[in-house]
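subagent[fold] <- orchestrator: predict structure for attached chain, return tokens only, no commentary.
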Amino acid sequence: MNGYSSQVFNKTSNAKTLILGVGNPILSDDGVGIHVLEELRKKYSNISDLEFDDLSTGGLSLAERFVGYKKVIMIDALALDNGTPGAVHRLTINDFGTTKRMYCAHDCNLATAYEVLKKELGLEKLPDEVIIIGIEAENFNEFSESLSEKVAKAIPKAVAMVEEELTKILPKK
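subagent[fold] -> orchestrator:
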């Protein structure tokens, strides 16, 4: 694949599904996606169809990480207008274009980045489905490895929502 950003990701396994925790673990609630990812990794790391990764990037660099998977489940903090800290949402890639999260003047939002990759690479290289489990954050501006109380209490619900997605794709025992 030709690189579109400064960081080109390559699949490291034959996994069909990528579970991706996004955020900065030293910016309080911004790291909630990584906290959720770690809980899931403890329970499901033995399943070969799943790959786990964490990133602290957005836009095109983040969307490039989706290449080669059938399904991506991304967990991230959200900042929504009139939001409720600790609320957990299931979103699609199209919904993500309306959030404040993951946008800066030097990059584009996730939905736009995904559209660029669709045009450049074609749909066959991108996931059939991208699900975002978003946890509304209370505190993005404090240097801390701790989550706010409301966001920390949302972790079990976010884990359960990812597990619900996994029941749709993993073989029944």
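orchestrator: received. Logging for downstream: Helices lie at 32-44, 59-64, 110-121, 149-153, 155-167. Confidence is low (pLDDT under 50) at residues 1-8, 98-106.
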